[in-house]
Amino acid sequence: MKIQLYLNGRRIEGEVKSDTMLLDFVREQGMKSVKRGCDTGNCGLCTVWLNDKPVLSCSTLAVRASNAHVTTLEGVEEEAAEFSRFLAEEGADQCGFCSPGLIMAVLALKRENAHPTELEIKEYLSGNLCRCTGYQSQWRALKKYFGVEEEA
Q1: Which own/partner pairs from 1-5 qualify as long-range (CB within 8 Å, at least 24 positions apart)?
Q2: Under 8 Å between Cβ of 68 and 5
Q3: Whole-angstrom Cα distance, residue 134 to residue 92?
Q4: Reduced to 3 states, what is the DSSP secondary structure of residue 47?
């Protein structure tokens, strides 16, 4: 079946099978930041925005994005670069495999809530997994990025 959508602001059309996942479709369009991690919606590596809301593209059918706006990391590079600097400064960019999904989730949170509490950050990002940092360096970067003060 044919679908039409806006991918990072550019109108595109494509042929998909009824069971094609959004992850596969956007990768076919050259968006290599979208990673395959678990195929079960548990790791966050495949996070993209569908109409400005984060979704897990490994468990979202491509046809669901028809006539919608899909944003990948390639579509928010300037915003992403700002947060990436915080990750680098805290040593949280070790292998970088999880970074695109994490960054998409962080930027979505910032758009929804520019001044979240520690708890709100933890709840919002709870599905983003990283296998190499141990999360402490990511946590320091997140708190600095959002300007979260140390809680007593």
Answers
A1: 1/63, 3/62, 3/63, 3/65, 3/66, 4/66, 4/67, 5/65, 5/66, 5/67, 5/68, 5/69, 5/70
A2: yes
A3: 9
A4: strand
User: Which amino acid is residue 35, in one-letter code?
Assistant: K
Which amino acid appears at position 96 of this protein? G
Closest-CA residue to 29 (of 48, 42, 46, 14): 14
**The pLDDT of residue 112 is above 60:** yes
Q: Is the pTM of this model over 0.90?
A: yes
Residue 77: φ, ψ to 5°: -60, -40
Structural tokens at position 77 = 């590079």
Burial 33-47 (b: 16+ CB within 10 A, else e): bbbebeeeeebbbbb
- Angle formed by the axes of helices 136-146 and 77-89, to 10°? 120
Mean pLDDT, rounded, of the chain: 94
